[in-house]
Amino acid sequence: MMLTQRRLLRAVTVIGAVSALAVALTACSDAQNADNVASGAPLDPALAKSAKGDITVCGPTDSSGVWKATMAAFNKAHPGTTANYVELGASADDQLQQITQRMQTKSNQCDVFRLDVVWTAQLAAQGWLADMSKVIDAKLGKLIPSTAETLLYKDKYWGVPFYSNTGLLYYRTDQTKPPQTWQQLYSYGEADAKKGFLYQASQSESLTVSFLELLYSAGGQVLNDKGEVAVNSPTTVEVLTFMQNGINKGAAPKAVLTYDEDATRLAFESGAGSTMRNYPYAYAAGQKSDIADKFAVMPLPGWKTAGNGVGVLGGSNVAVSTFSKNQAGALAMVDFMTGDAWQERIAADNALAPAVSAAYDSEAVKKAMPFSQELLKALTSAKSRPVSPVYPQISQAIYQTVGKVLSGEVAPQAGATQMADKVANALRTF
Amino acid sequence: MVAPALILMAGVAGYPVLYAIWLSLHQYSVITPGLSRSVGLNNYIEQLTSPAWWEAVGNTFLFTAISVPLELLIGIGMALLLNIAFRFRTLLRSIVLLPYAILTVVSAITWRTIFDPDLGLVSTMLSSLGLTDTGVVWLGQSGYAMTVVILADVWKTAPFVSLLVLAGLQVIPADLREASQIDGAGAFRHFRSITLPLLWPAIALAMIFRTLDALRVFDLPFVLTRGAYGTETMSVLAYQTLRGNQLIGEGSAVSILTFVFVMFVSFLYIRFAGGNIRSVVKGGSR
User: Fold this and answer.
1) CB B244 to CB A34 under 8 A?
2) 3-state secondary structure of A390
3) CB neighbours of A94 closer than 8 A, spacing ≥ 6?
4) With 90 as the cut, is the pLDDT of residue B188 above it?
5) A21, A417, B117, B233: which could form a disulfide with B135 (CB 3.0–4.6 Å)?
């Protein structure tokens, strides 16, 4: 008995020693790669002309086929090069993890990455993205200015917009008039519970976006131009009060508290409300539903006064990896993707919102997206979410607080304070 | 002699735990790659003073305290029924186990659909019975959301309890029933004085399994509500901090705290229920 105990003790000591050694080794390797933030000269757009060799583009699981079509078209137009597409997963979280893992090991597998618009700061801060300021400068006249805004971090551009996205207002033409203001929009449901406003309020990024669109429309902001917290404002309190009253008075059904984009769309199609906030994709789906030809699309309404509200920008940017061995090829790819011809094609074939404004005048695009002029208006006035390396924390601070306000657990005034505290806390992350 | 096994254990179990502890004593920069600083117990102090952590602890223990007893009661009831000899018993036994065979994530998505406020089965049924005029937003209100999470867990794991208890029932010799009948015991008396004590080891085992599983519940709340409306458990919080917010040090501290809480509860169990198992087994075989 004593013997086994002593043995056990010795074994535990061995485990401890082995583990401690391993920990120490990891510590050393961690200390070694403590190198630095984004550096290096901006890429020269002229480099694209000398493109040759293999180019690898890494992005989402290609369910719509747009990425593979892009590769095929690029290869046809550039006989000397071969572009391949690597799928990094269906969800944004998966893709970000895959990108991070590759970058941490300085992998040169991917020359071009597809980025969610909210990743710019996070990845650029790590020094993983090539400076694309000169490329954007050359294209700025063609791009819808707001789309380039999502790529701006520390006064430099870190990629190029491929396609954009923003919130639109869908309304039932057989039930309501197009609302001029958010206040008018909310009055529909208060008058008749069956004609409420459907939007995304499940506690996730979707709710952050729903809140920001109201906040931006009302002239509020989360961070000011210097990057300081500016969310504890009377505007925030006003917007939170407006949203809370909206739920309490039936302007929006309580069910929105569980809605993501698709649940919202299904509810709208089943007639649960007369208006809906959703992305352009819901248009094509709606045409196949029971309410086809009974709805129309417009930009989000103004706050208190008529006019365009402010949507939040989504979509996909493309960036060049700093570890790429074929930056000339990568530039050629990026240039092709954002060229006028290809921008028209992705709109006509895949109903994606082009980042280039000229594409909206094309007949093929107007045919594929009958609401293209409304979409262009919405995109022109849209704004990006706070650009910060700690955006995930900022977003969480927003949706958790707004969720508590909507369910009545927290008063709007206290909500604004809590939100500001949490955002300030996130900004202190070192 | 046991060295290879112990080294293997150190590699797959010891190292990750110690590494997580080491991580939890540091803060990693989200902004500059590779930069980290040692912060001592700061991450722990921050968590232990944050309302979010204690809310998660409360949610987890509430979930455990309600779901485990329900699962035990229903599981034991099911086992007793399945132990009675009748036609199609084998078929019924496999059917009863079905919920346990379904992946938790899949069953969670199913439950989410059932409790959908507009088109869900429950809302439709309640409103067609005239109990509610508009759909109840189950997953969008505190209290209601936890109810659904508990319901989904009970539905899924009561069969698991019944399986363990059924195995316990099958080893009780049939002649004990005859003996107690001869002594004039009724069905209830027989259950209370013979079946239950002999069944106790199986019940205790099921209870330990279920409690430890319940304390680290992640998949159900994550899929059903993403931790919103009073369903954020310790594991969901750890995930949010570590993966969502990429706060490696802080997230590791939450994981370690979760680990310590679960360890503490299992220690209590082995201390008390464990002793019980031995005495019951001894008493039973006497």
Assistant:
1) no
2) coil
3) A88
4) no
5) B117
Sequence-distant (≥ 6) Cβ neighbours of residue A202 within 8 angstroms: A257, A258, A259, A260, A263, B140, B226, B228
Chain A residues touching residue B246 (CB < 8 angstroms): 392
Instruction: Collect all residues of chain A within an 8 Å Cβ-Cβ radius of residue B137.
Output: 254-255, 257-258
Edge to edge, what strands does the sheet with A295-298 contain? A197-198, A275-278, A168-172, A295-298
A414 and chain B in contact, CB less than 8 A: no
The CA-based angle B187-B188-B190, given to 5 degrees, is 65
Residue A136: which pLDDT band, with cuts at 50, 70 and 90? very high
Instruction: Look up the ipTM and state it.
Output: 0.80
Q: What is the pairing mode between strands A197-198 and A275-278?
A: parallel
Q: What is the pLDDT of residues A40-70, one digit of tens each?
A: 678 888 888 887 889 999 999 998 899 999 9
What are the helix (H) ranges across A270-410?
281-287, 327-337, 340-350, 363-368, 372-381, 391-406
CA distance linking residue B35 with residue B89, whole number of Å: 63
| Residue located via tokens 């059932």 | B114
Q: What's residue A171's pLDDT? A: 96
d(CA A274, CA A399): 25
**Per-residue tokens: A118:** 């909210």
Residue A240 to residue A409: CA distance in whole angstroms? 13
- The secondary structure element, H or E, covering residue A16 is helix A2-32
* Contact status, residue A280 vs residue A165, Cβ threshold 8 Å: yes
> Which of the four pLDDT bands, split at 50, 70 and 90, describes residue B134?
low
Question: What dihedral do alpha carbons B128, B133, B138, B143 form, nearest 10°?
Answer: -120
Provide the pairing of β-strand A112-116 with A152-153. unpaired
Query: What is the C-alpha to C-alpha distance for residues A364 and A31, in angstroms, rounded to an integer?
Result: 55
Long-range contacts of A29-32 (CB under 8 A, 24+ apart): A30/B34, A30/B36, A31/B34, A32/B34
Which chain B positions have a beta carbon within 8 Å of A30's beta carbon?
34, 36
Give the phi and the psi of residue A174 in degrees, each rounded to 5: -90, -5
Q: What is the pLDDT of residue A37?
A: 43
Show which of residues 261-300 on chain A sit within 8 Å of chain B, judged by CB atoms: 263, 266-267, 270, 272
Mean of per-residue pLDDT scores for chain A: 87
Tokens at A3, concatenated = 């013997």
Angle between helical axes of A66-77 and A327-337 (0-180°, round to 10): 110
Of A322, A368, A359, nearest to A337 by C-alpha is: A359
Alpha helix positions (H), A37-158: 66-77, 92-104, 120-125, 133-139, 145-149
Helix (H) / strand (E) containing A262: helix A261-269
Cβ neighbours of residue A157 closer than 8 Å, sequence gap 6 or more: A131, A132, A133, A135, A136, A148, A151
Q: Which residues pair with A302 in a beta bridge?
A: A181
